[in-house]
Design a protein that fits this description.
The protein is an alpha+beta fold. The protein folds into two domains: about 180 residues, no CATH class; about 140 residues, Apc35880, domain 1 (Alpha-Beta Plaits, 2-Layer Sandwich), CATH 3.30.70. Helices cover about 20% and strands about 20% of the residues. A hairpin with a 5-residue loop joins strand 7 and strand 8. The protein is globular, with a radius of gyration of 21 Å. It is found in: Cell envelope. Keywords: Heme, Iron, Metal-binding, Oxidoreductase, Peroxidase, Signal.
Length: about 400
């Protein structure tokens, strides 16, 4: 899941795809500069095909209330706050200093004076939300099936899963942290943070206007990622459709997260030739084996049979694709002089059962990169369509 960035799905069926392709695609939300706001309202949530920002704060929450009405109220409050925050405003009406001196402020204040910085907030609902607490069991989408245990997984339950996730992406880390902090503050008594992850240095480009970034192994990552300019491909393989089995998810997408720790020190002692053979690309230019340029066609026959690019290539998985927008992370050291570092993998798709699962199963069984990485957390979330206007809220159709 590192070097290729496009692993995909045999789409749900030619008829379904053709019908979905006739839908009018809403404009893509993006900022004109790094400091500008990204539009919040629209048919799809921002933060999916939005050109990937440089910083991430991702949080998963457990719902602590058993009252459906309280959960709905929270989602309405969160949506109103998100609409303000993404436009560079404070989280509440009175902000950090405008209210009563005797009351807690409506905003924590650490982003005062900072621009919107391209902030996007994207919400998703985990499989555990569809238990018997809120009467949602019958509304769980078929595509939100639990991920299987992959060979080699070393998942830590405390940093996996969650009832709800919120992905905050921005060009300023303080803006992203501020957003999650304020949503957690608003949710006090109704949700608690299960786990969170900071990320830097995006590891995928989601627009052709962006250069391909590098992961912490030094290789260009996500060369063949789906891009926001690929409108037909996005309709087929990114956005859920009404006929997929959950009407409330139409226009939404399914999110998979994986925290992948790298044994950086071992990798750094590996020869350049071995590194390039493992990936199937050159380290400098990012060209596929036997080619000169990054975007030259891949010659699978020219690389070793278990090369990462070859195992993850769409031709091996029914021409399936993912839209990736992961981030590097460094969480200090482990006390033994080794960096606790790696990739926080994020991928959106129309159906993880047909996209992420077969690709990851192939990689888990045979990828030589497995000698240098281990998967330590996992998440799966259904990200509903966008919020249409100020009278709408995140997940409204699910609770209707």
């Amino acid at each position: 899941m590192f070097g290729l960035g496009a692993a995909g799905i045999a789409a749900a069926g030619a008829g379904a795809i053709a019908a979905h392709s006739l839908l009018q695609e809403p404009p893509v939300a993006h900022a004109s500069s790094a400091s500008d706001p990204v539009p919040f309202y629209g048919g799809h949530q921002a933060g999916i095909v939005t050109p990937a920002q440089d910083r991430l704060h991702f949080a998963a929450f457990d719902v602590t209330t058993d009252e459906k009405a309280e959960l709905v109220d929270l989602l309405q409050e969160w949506t109103a706050a998100a609409a303000r925050l993404t436009q560079g405003r404070e989280a509440g009406t009175f902000g950090a200093v405008g209210g009563s001196a005797e009351a807690a402020p409506d905003d924590t204040g650490e982003a005062l004076g900072l621009p919107a910085s391209g902030l996007t907030l994207t919400i998703g609902f985990g499989p555990s939300l569809f238990d018997d607490r809120f009467g949602l069991a019958g509304r769980r989408p078929p595509a939100l099936a639990d991920l299987p245990k992959f060979p080699g997984d070393q998942l830590v339950p405390e940093i996996s899963g969650g009832d709800i996730c919120v992905q905050a992406c921005a060009h300023d880390p303080q803006v992203a942290v501020h957003a999650i902090r304020n949503l957690a503050r608003i949710g006090f008594g109704r949700v608690s943070v299960r786990w969170s992850q900071l990320g830097f240095g995006r590891t995928s480009s989601t627009s052709r206007a962006q250069a391909t970034p590098r992961n912490l192994m030094g290789f260009k990552d996500g060369t063949n990622n789906m891009k926001l300019e690929d409108a037909a491909l996005l309709r087929e393989q990114l956005w859920a459709a009404p006929q997929d089995g959950a009407d409330w998810m139409a226009g939404g997408s399914y999110l998979v997260t994986r925290k992948i720790r790298m044994t950086i020190e071992t990798w750094d002692r590996t020869s350049l030739r071995e590194q390039e053979d493992i990936f199937g690309r050159s380290k400098g230019e990012g060209a596929p084996v036997g080619r000169k340029n990054e975007f030259d066609p891949v010659d699978l026959a020219a690389m070793r049979p278990d090369a990462h690019v070859r195992l993850a290539h769409p031709s091996a998985h029914g021409d399936a694709h993912l839209l990736r927008r992961g981030y590097n992370y460094v969480d200090g050291s482990d006390g033994l002089g080794r960096l606790d570092a790696g990739l926080f993998f994020i991928a959106y798709q129309r159906d993880p059962r047909k996209q992420f699962v077969p690709v990851q199963m192939s990689l888990a069984k045979a990828d030589p990169l497995n000698e240098y990485i281990k998967h330590i957390s996992s998440g799966l979330f259904a990200c509903p369509p966008g919020v249409e206007d100020a009278g709408d809220y995140w997940g409204r159709a699910l609770f209707a």
